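Next up, a specimen:

>
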Amino acid sequence: MSMNVIKWLEQVMELKEKKSHNSVNGSQVKALEKIAKRVIAEMECGGEPVRWCVHGGPGTGKTHIIKLVDELFTNVLGWKMGIHFQLVAYQAVTAALLGGDTIHRACNIPLFTRGAVGLENEQKQREVHWRWLLIDEINMVSAKLLAEIDTKLRSLARDVDPYARDENKHMRPFAGVNLLC
């Protein structure tokens, strides 16, 4: 499986040479290399999850990176969004453009503090095991909401989850889910 990830990364690097709407620049390649290396490391030995932020001005290709990572996860690794990874954004419009979901819906966080948490969605969440959470438009996310995401993921972590705890048995931030903002 790691050979498939390497082959995918090589194909992405070839896009760098092309001058099309799908091409990538040097900074995007570095980001994708880091993600691919983490995926491979996790397949082979585990290690510390990535909590990483890709930043830049409007139009620099941050969303393009997320779409390429989505391609890696779905087409190369055969992962299913909502089960193995999740693409989210604060606003529904941005989430729809990604083919993902809003943060509140995906993480089952009530939009208003008085809102009731749906039991059906809570049960569904207990059946998933995200390895990656990709958040687009992180500048829209408050520190409070980011803390709520962390709390939710920690509350859903299973005792048998090999990624949720570090070697000292302490719960990792975001329950060991790789986080790319």
Notes: The mean pLDDT is 86.
